[in-house]
Structure formats: structure tokens, C-alpha cells
Amino acid sequence: MTTLLDAQLGADREKAILAKFPQTPSPDALTKLKSVLEFYAKSGMTQDELAKVEDMVTDRDPGSFPFIWGRVNVNTAPAAVLACLPGFQDTNYPAQLVAARHGKTPSALTSIAWVGDLLKQQDPTNAVAAAVGPYLTTRSYQFSADVVSLGHRDRGLRRDLLIIDTADGAPRVVYRRDLTRLGWPLGQAIREGLRLASQP
Hints:
Layout: H1 2-9, H2 11-18, H3 36-43, H4 47-53, E1 72-73, H5 79-82, H6 93-101, H7 113-122, H8 127-132, E2 136-137, E3 142-150, E4 157-165, E5 172-178, H9 188-197
Parallel strand pairs: 1-2
Antiparallel strand pairs: 3-4, 4-5
């Protein structure tokens, strides 16, 4: 961590940040952190500073891939999903996060820092950030797609649910389910428009 912060932020900031994690009486204060969000909340870093090191800091062994798994994307999850996470249960944080993210630029949403800043305003002890941090991310690697297709002149219908995984870089379908029995999902007006467009 010392080398990383020194290289990215300079020696002065590296010392100021690490001073937030005293080595006495516990010499492993940094290793006891459970997430990047908790590290940010306790470090006193700015959003710009975190952006320079966030992709190089992990709370898991980098040798074990994937080292980020099973997390909820705070940029896309509905409030009902966020409300199930530790630290967020029976609080107003989920609704506040959903409202706050609508006013953010796409670049601001790439870092977990915006979540840390919102939590810090109401919880200076960082207890909520410590509890919820291991369960949040600002990125998604798995996507679902409900794909429907029609045959020529509206003859024949096929509908599939696809789960696509991009964690390895190249997208790949990891799950496919036939949903044809559920019928056309997009309303009659769209289907009629497609039928008319396919006529000679």
C-alpha cells in the first residue's frame, strides 16, 4: 500500500493517508478492512485520489479469480434490493442512494467514492460503510437479455432469456432459457408495426 500510494499520490499524501490507520496497538489495521468503500471512508482521501488507486486495491487475494464476486451494483439496483444489505436494513440510505445517483455524471458513478461521501455525511463513525462495503460495487459483469424474434411476415415466434458474462473480457452466454411459451412481450402495437414493415 505504501508503494502504491506513494507512486500515485506522492509521499506527503501517502503518509497522511496511512496515518489514519495507526499501527499501534494493532499492526494490521489495514488488513482488517473489509472493502474498498471502508478504506475510502476511513482514509480521508478525495474522490480523485481514490480513482487513481481504486482498481489496484482489493479486499481479496488477487491470485484468486474472480476476486470481486456476488456484489450488488449500487448504480443500478433498486432501493428494495439495496435495503436487504447489511447496514442498510431499516434505514433511509437505499432511497437516498437511488435519488443521489440520478444527479451524477457517468464518470462520477464509476467509483465507489460517491457512496462513501453520502454515507460519511450521516455516519461519521463509518460503521455503515464498514458493514455494507463488502456487498457493493459500481460495475456489472453479468447481464440478462430477453430476446424475441419473429419469422417472415409475422410467422413464428421465438423468445429466449440469456445471461451474458463479461468478466473474462469477451462476452459469453452462460445461461439460456426458452421463454417462447410466455408469448410476445412488447405489446400489440409494436408487433403490428413489424408485421406491416415485413410486407412487400
